[in-house]
Amino acid sequence: MSNPPTEYYSAERWQNWIDRIKDEEIDPEDEDSARLLLNLQDDTAIAIAKIVADYDDGELEQEAALAEIEDVREVVLGEVDIEDEEKLILVDGVQTSLVCVFFAAEEYVANGPAEEGTVTDYLGAAADAEAEENLDAALGYAAQAGTLVIDDEELDMGVAEEFEYGLVTEWINGLDSLQSAMSDPEVVEEDED
């Protein structure tokens, strides 16, 4: 039961991604740049998916699973040392997308999947709450949607097109990475060109 704390994700792994972003010409309109940012996001989502899967399989106790999620969150949501303003904004976007992934995983481990409603219902409620500038409620609803994604309910990405662009659409982006990670938790190779 005792896992080394870096088994799921490490500060070094995150930093390797950040260094790649620093070193490369990043243009979000360019497919390779977009893929690099998506891989950064997916890589984190995969780590979270593995923690949740190990918890579901009984390999991690609830408290240990929550601690692992917290460890990954501290690494990924920490301040990023990039001087290039544009790159910083892009990484910030990835971090924003992942906020909901962490909350969803914690909610799932602590309380299981949401008992009523669908992914779309919760995301609609999240968008409504965001429109009313109640961001805590918005995140709460989006996290509930995330618990259902973890529980294998389908997230239809078309739903994001119905909402104003904002935090909820960013979070849906993160939940999409989580959905992919739950169905295929293969490690994203850091070295792919």
Describe this structure in words.
- This is DUF2150 domain-containing protein.
- It comes from Natronococcus amylolyticus DSM 10524.
- InterPro entries: UCP022079 (IPR014518).
- The chain is mainly α.
- It has one domain (11-183).
- The protein contains 7 helices and no strands.
- The chain has helices spanning 11-23, 31-56, 62-76, 85-111, 119-131, 135-150, 167-183.
- Helix 2 packs antiparallel against helix 3.
- The longest helix has 27 residues, at 85-111.
- The termini are far apart.
- The model is unreliable at 1-6 (pLDDT under 50).
CA radius of gyration is: 16 Å
Average predicted confidence as pLDDT: 92
Number of helices: 7
Q: Flag low-confidence runs.
A: 1-6
Strand content: under 5%
Shape: globular
Give helix % range: 55-70%
Distance between the termini: 36 Å
- How many individual domains? 1
The main sheet comes to: none
Secondary structure category: mainly alpha
- The number of distinct β-strands equals 0
Strand and helix order: HHHHHHH
Labels describing this entry:
66% helix, 193 residues, single chain, 7 helices, 0% strand, mainly alpha, disordered N terminus
Brief account:
The chain is mostly helical and 193 residues long.
List the helices and strands and how they pair.
Layout: H1 11-23, H2 31-56, H3 62-76, H4 85-111, H5 119-131, H6 135-150, H7 167-183
Helix pairs in contact: 2-3, 2-4, 2-7, 3-4, 4-6, 4-7, 5-6, 5-7, 6-7
